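hey so i finally got around to running both of the ones u sent me last week. sorry it took forever, my laptop kept dying halfway thru and i had to restart like 3 times lol. anyway pasting them below in the order u listed, first the sequence line then the structure token line for each. didnt double check formatting much so if smth looks off just lmk and ill redo it

first one:
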Amino acid sequence: MTKITFMGAGSTVFAKNIIGDSFLTESLRDAEFALYDIAADRLNESYNMLNNLNANINANRAKVKPYLGVKNRRAALRGADFVINAIQVGGYEPATVIDFEIPKKYNLRQTIGDTLGIGGIFRALRTINVLQGFVEDIQAVCPEAWFLNYSNPMSILTGYLIRKGGLKCVGLCHSVQVCAERLLKELDLWDKYNPVTWKIAGINHMAWLLEISKNGKDLYPEIKKAAAKMNRAARKKDGKKHYDMVRFEILRHFGYYNTESSEHTAEYHPYFIKSRYPELIEELNIPLDEYPRRCIEQIEKWHKMRDEVTNNQKLTHDKTNEYGSRIMDSIVTDTPREIGGNVLNHGLITNLPEDAVVEVPCLVNRNGVQGCYVGDLPLACAALNMTHINVHK
């Protein structure tokens, strides 16, 4: 029987996505799911929800068991084949509030603060302390397990887990698989060209859409023309703003579209959030303090939907686009799949450092997750990636 341990299982909605997908995957239907968290109420909510889901869509074939607190962590991990990590250390309060409010006193502004800069660095520091305990337990009771990391800052944490922890690990983000579709939908080109072929590589939250085509036709010329036209109109005084203005500026100046959102991208570069040019914030529709605002909205939304999700005996699930269940299925059944994953470079992107964590196409089969060769990135893209990699190190 396959054993899957979910660290941070109190993330109820995300646990539903990953484990619900697993309930709908034939090779994982009979798996044992160990739910680990340090918050009793959140863990109990996820446990109730997954029991209902297991009954409704999986005929109770899976075994689901909760494990509360550090004293039970090693038991949760013992014998695991896969470990899914979705922890956020410190939560919204106090950690996220501190990450934003202290820098703000010194006129240092952020949008998301989970990847780089002040917020990203401090999130990494407090999370690595917890991951160190995970690593010690995994090496003791399930050293061959594959560790699927969903926690940010992705590159820093994944690098720690592989380089220092010695784990079999891949970092997983949502931005790769939705990048091309969202770009084309924003430009009203999706219906015209769907489905498309694309290639993405770089680093997490700054990977590059290197190629996008339809039946061999390069779509970038049309995309660039449409994006430039849309941004010119939006930047006018009374122009209609849209959510992707910063990324379209990166596309205009550097020639390639990047995977993560404009609100993320705005704080990754020294070009947009400028104390001497505050007009750029409004002109480019940059949402300062966006992540704390989202946290408040999500907390309020969760309070309203908690009973509907956790105590709904008719709860069901539609499979998501998350890679987690697909990776586990490919390793268990030796079914080859391609995903976008974060792994050590080792020559995959030839103009980035060997020991950097890169986001590249990966082959998944019984041998695990294996990064695929990309070659050189465009010089400007590699240079922008290096501004992040230097901080990661």
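and the second one:
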Amino acid sequence: MNLSIVDWFGYNCAPRDRMRAIKEAGFSGVMLLWADYFDKDYKLFPEYAQNAGLIIDNAHAPYLNANHLWEDTIDGQEAYKEIIMCVEDCATHNVPTLVMHPENKKGTETVSLPCDFSIGIERVKRIVDIAEQLNVNVAIENMSRPEYLERIFQDIQSERLGFCFDSGHCNVFTPNVDFLALYGDKLMALHLHDNDGSEDWHALPFTGNKNGAILHQS
């Protein structure tokens, strides 16, 4: 099994040094945050990871504009283009899987559902179509509203479309939803982190106080 960690793990040091530290800590792989939220040179990270001897498990798409994906607006079209660029970058850099949020939570509040899912579903279909052409997997992550996953997996069938299970998000937003029972056969990525059930800490596993059962299940 490949044990990986995200490239941004909370310490502000040079990206090359982070990759070396990840390898020296015993991890064999890395998830790349494919956005400039923390580092402007993120497109050089595949080279840094390779030089450190790390496998790239997947890349995480930008998520701040995810809610716009479901809107018939210019912002919605820009959010769609942003994900398409990520799929193309994954193909260029031989990253096998792109993880994306179907929506972006607002702190610990759940987001409102769109009045019409069809706009977003059509965009996700086009994203998956391009991913199929480029041999890239697209893994949809569980966030605050399971309805998004339900609609996506109900309306789109593709071997390139799969699921990313996030234990921390499950604990904060949907502790009573068994995502692995629902979509375990589609699992392409796994995010294991912890919290106390009230905030999305992204803390080390088993350092929270409520989600041990979810982590053990994962």
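quick thing i noticed on the 2nd:
Residues 74-92 form the longest helix (19 residues).
anyway thats it, ttyl
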